[in-house]
Amino acid sequence: MALNSNKELKQYYSIAEVSEMFSLPASLLRFWEKEFPTIRPKKNNNGVRIYTKADIEEIRLVYDLVKGRNMKLAAARELIQRNREGAKNSSDLLQRLQSVRDQLLEIKKELEGIV
Fold this sequence. Notes:
The protein contains five helices and three strands; from the N terminus they run E-H-H-E-E-H-H-H.
């Protein structure tokens, strides 16, 4: 998941924005907050959740483990607790590979248009 370039300038994100970034319902993000102690957005004076880039990276890690690798929540939570760096590095690698795959598909599409 790549963040929208104009949103990268923001310091805080609403739950609706984060939900849109990952194509997840806001209710799932709230559920993950209960299941993963590393996801802890702050709340503003109105009680609205505000996410920082660090919060979004935690969500990205959980997303990659749960949605990308189809891990059960308990297994993902244990992996993060036991080997955070390994899980994060693996998640980063998966993201890069998906980006390369998307680029290759785009090149393929362009080449097919030439022929």
